[in-house]
Structures are given as C-alpha cells and as structure tokens.
Design goal:
YbaK/EbsC family protein, 11 strands, 23% helix, YbaK/aa-tRNA-synth-assoc-dom, YbaK protein, 185 residues, four-stranded antiparallel sheet, aminoacyl-tRNA deacylase activity, 6 helices, alpha+beta, globular, YbaK/aa-tRNA-synt-asso_dom_sf
Length: 185
C-alpha cells in the first residue's frame, strides 16, 4: 500500500494499526463514524526521533510541510473556570490563541495547556497529540485551511507514526468547529 501523500516504507489503514496507537486513538478508529470510511485513515510508521514537524519534513521531504497539521491543547479561562480544547492548524501557521481561540471558547484569557495537562487529559504522548480520540466533551477547533486539504498528515497519539486523513474527516470529529483564520502567519 502507498500513502496518498509522502513516501513511507510502512503504510497501512489505521484499523490495521491499532496496536501502534494509544488507547483513545485506537478506540476512536475502532468506533469511527462519518462520511469518510475508517479504512481511509492511514497510519504510517515512522521513527519517534523524527516526530517534530521540522525534523519530520527534513527527513521525509519538504513537500509534506504544506500538507501537515499540528494539534495543540489550549486552556480558556473565565472567572475560576477553565475549559480545555484542541486546535488543529497547518504546520506553516500558529494558533491564534488570543483572538480566534479566546473568542470561540468565550474566555477572558486563553493559553497553551501545560504539557502534563495536555498529556494527562488526552492520554496521548506529547509531540504526537492528534484530534482523533480526544475527550468527547472538548471542542476541536479546526482551521478551514486544514479541512480543505485532500489529505493531511497529523499525529497518531504517539511520537512513533503519523496519520494521513482526508481533511474533511477532521470537520466531522466529535466537537469539531471549523474556523476561518484559526491559524495565522
């Protein structure tokens, strides 16, 4: 099997790679709903040393940068309440935390969640957090530019491996909210 983007040695449909995924991601793939079939979610097995975007595209090819997205966990605060959410933006942009995120969450202040919070709440490895398999009560804010991609490379829940999914599949995730301008610069 060949990946729809990139050139990878180990490629298989995500439902056949459940043993390489964290429990929340594997459960989400196992119980996948939506117009995109689960078989169209592709797992590529990669070296965990190359998980960070810059290193990854240096090793696997610079053309992947324009087809990659990062998923970060943010915390919005208003009064004494804190709300966690995830943001998915193109790897070539940064999350508009103080604008789009803060407004969408109705927060007075928004910031990136601490690493231990992000890892503990998602059940995923830092540097591999993906929008697939996040807690059901979270908003998953997805930049419209990500949804528009035919295929996008995202984390797999671990630093070893990535998922390649049709961009439109991310708009159908539980809690997904597609926003113009979530990714800036």
């Amino acid at each position: 099997m060949r990946a729809p983007i990139g050139d990878f040695d180990h490629v298989r449909p995500a439902p056949e790679a459940l043993d390489l995924l964290t429990r929340p991601v594997a459960d989400a793939v196992r119980h996948w709903r939506g117009t995109v079939p689960a078989q169209d979610l592709i797992h590529v097995d990669t070296d965990p040393e190359w998980a960070d975007t810059a290193t990854f595209v240096e090793h696997y090819g610079p053309e992947l940068l324009a087809q990659s997205a990062n998923c970060v966990v943010v915390a919005g605060r208003r009064g004494g309440e804190s709300t966690l959410a995830a943001c998915v933006v193109l790897s070539t942009t940064k999350v508009d935390v103080n604008g789009a995120v803060r407004r969408q969450l109705g927060a007075r202040k928004a910031s990136f969640a601490a690493m231990d919070t992000a890892v503990g709440e998602t059940g995923m490895e830092y540097g591999g957090i993906t929008p697939i398999g996040l807690p059901a009560d979270w908003q998953v804010l997805v930049d419209a530019a990500v949804v528009d991609l035919p295929y996008v490379l995202i984390g797999s829940g671990t630093r070893r491996g990535k998922l390649i999914v049709p961009g439109k599949a991310l708009a159908e995730l539980p809690g997904a909210v597609v926003l113009e301008g979530l990714g800036i610069g």
